[in-house]
């Protein structure tokens, strides 16, 4: 078994070649973050709206909503920045193409 540089644990990628849990591209992680924070922001919007209509103190949920929307805006700006850098000739980060699934798989494993 090979030993990785940083960790003292053995590298088991050769034992389980089909199991790659963390082989996502950076833009895929940003997309996942946008989805998670977008869902949480939508849920917090509903909670804040209901709190306002019922008459419960909604300052905490409104500030939480503000934080979620700010994080969501930062993630969207980061995604746009990554795609613009790719368009200028930087490292390929997107999976936006017009091909079939085999081409997607080939590009994803680069």
- What's the tally of helices? 3
Q: What can be said about the biggest beta sheet?
A: none
Order of helices and strands: HHH
Supply Rg: 20 Å
From the N-terminal CA to the C-terminal CA, the straight-line distance is 24 Å
Give the number of DSSP strands. 0
The coarse overall form would be: elongated
Strand content: under 5%
What features would you highlight for this structure?
elongated, mainly alpha, 3 helices, 110 residues
What does this structure look like?
The protein is an all-alpha fold and 110 residues long. It has a domain at 25-82. It is 60% helix and 0% strand. The protein contains three helices and no strands. The protein has helices spanning 26-54, 59-87, 101-108. Helix 1 (26-54) runs antiparallel to helix 2 (59-87). The protein starts with 25 loop residues before the first helix and ends with a helix. 5% of the residues are buried.
Tell me the layout of helices and strands.
Blueprint: H1 26-54, H2 59-87, H3 101-108
Helix pairs in contact: 1-2
In short:
The protein is mainly alpha-helical. It has helices spanning 26-54, 59-87, 101-108. The longest helix has 29 residues, at 26-54.
């Amino acid at each position: 078994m090979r030993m990785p540089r940083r960790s003292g644990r053995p590298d088991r990628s050769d034992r389980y070649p089909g199991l790659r849990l963390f082989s996502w591209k950076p833009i895929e992680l940003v997309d996942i973050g946008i989805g998670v924070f977008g869902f949480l922001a939508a849920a917090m919007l509903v909670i804040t709206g209901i709190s306002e209509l019922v008459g419960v103190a909604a300052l905490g949920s409104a500030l939480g909503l503000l934080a979620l929307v700010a994080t969501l805006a930062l993630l969207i700006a980061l995604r746009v920045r990554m795609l613009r850098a790719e368009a200028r000739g930087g490292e390929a980060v997107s999976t936006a193409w017009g091909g079939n699934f085999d081409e997607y798989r080939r590009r994803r494993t680069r």
